[in-house]
Amino acid sequence: MNYIRLPLEKIDNCRDLGGYPTIYGKVTSWNKFVRSANLNSASKKDIDFLKKYGVTTIIDLRGEDEISLSFDKVEEIKKEFEYYNVPLARETLRDEEIKKIIDKKLTIGESYYNLIDNFEGIREIFNIFADSKGACLFHCHEGKDRTGVIAMLLLLLVGVSRKDVIANYEVSSANLGYIERYNPKEKMSVFRLTLPSFMKTAIDYINRKYSSIEVFLKEYCNIEDEKLSKIKDKFLESQNE
Length: 241
Fold this sequence. Notes:
- This protein has 241 residues and is of the alpha/beta class.
- It has helices spanning 44-53, 64-67, 71-80, 95-102, 108-111, 113-116, 119-131, 146-157, 162-175, 178-181, 196-210, 213-220, 225-235; strands at residues 15-16, 26-28, 33-36, 55-60, 82-85, 135-139, 236-238.
């Protein structure tokens, strides 16, 4: 169930993060946190569905340059939901970084380090998670990289296993139709993939550099214990509930 897309007309890769077993003997709650691609083409039916589903808050992880291309839709979204723009990537990939990835001198997973090290952005996002009243939907452009990193941090916080976090990440390529169109002879094809090794690299980076997800969120992102507890209380439920 965790990998099934929500029945939306024009929003890609939209999935609920509920239903995962955790180390606490509980499962992640449904209708609390939703990940997706951008809402640029969202239909009225899509908006109505999300509202009925319980979504009250939208966090847009894109940069201002991306948002400016869909200004009218963003203004429409603001009328229907609590809307926050928190750019997770402080800058787009530079040409030299893209070349390094193509030349296999840098992996996609390693390119996530800059996203993870955006402590201020992550603190703002998690404070919104803690204080949102209904379900919170977060998205970037395609809902795979920036969105994937935030989903990883959120799931690890509440004790979801590494294998489930990685599995949640890798589904994006299939949901976006990229697996069907993947051509290894095309240099840019690597940017369409969400390989398990990419997310493993990101998780290993957190454990190696910051020792644990808790230390990372508390000591480096400076997120208060109260906020993290609110997220856990909201996102965890007993298996028999």
